[in-house]
Write a structure and sequence with these properties.
Order of helices and strands: EEHEEHHEEHEEHHEHEHHHH
Strand order of the largest sheet: 1-2-3-5-7-10
Structural class: alpha/beta
Number of strands: 10
Number of helices: 11
Distance between the termini: 27 Å
Strand content: 15-25%
Length: 260
Amino acid sequence: MSDNVLKIADHGTVRVIAIDRPDKLNALNASTLEALHRAFDQTAADAAVRVVVLTGSGPKAFVAGADIAEMADLTPMEARDFSLRGQRMMRRVERMPKPVIAMVNGFALGGGLELAMCCHLRIAADTARLGQPEINLGLIPGFGGTQRLLRLAGRAATLELCLTGAPIDANRALQLGVVNRVIPAAELEAETMQLANQLASSAPHALRSMLDCVNIGGECGIEEGLEYESAQFGLVFATQDMREGTRAFLEKRKPAFAGH
């Protein structure tokens, strides 16, 4: 499957979506944002897909940023609309009912880091470089970078990365909590797919409830978050997967979750 600027392939219940503009270091332009939004809408509705891996084509970049050539001549209102379009797409990824893993295979700068941060997990090659360099262009992050980086890495690190525009290596990103794992580049795809298949073997309804709880909890007070968690905890008791999981535990066998 493809969408001009995307390559989409299913590996069992894992869908790999690759941004396919290697000559532009997979930079995000308007058509790429629209294609990604469409792809994630379709994936959310596809019951056969349980986990998504998002990456970039070519050996150099996950996504090296937004497409500066397209942005340079925008009017202020057009720039605001471009920002909102990017934020809507990334919110679509963030609120996916299935785990999304960013496989950061190279540069993740500007819009590329913003895209990685809206995914649920981030696995980076040891050769990856990450940053918010917009200040070097007289710009600021516009796809949610100031907000998600703040929530992942804290105020001090966010200000350092955004104010200086200096990129960091993958191990520094791991220390800051921006990525979950750092893997040797030659092993990145295999390790990421192993994690994706592990998640795909879990109970889909429970995965969705956990994603919802963490997303909601990060945006509300503790009391509301706890109440939402209790409601989701009760709801999973209505699933056949919960019965299968508890029976398998008691019977000392591996569960077979069917997504029911």
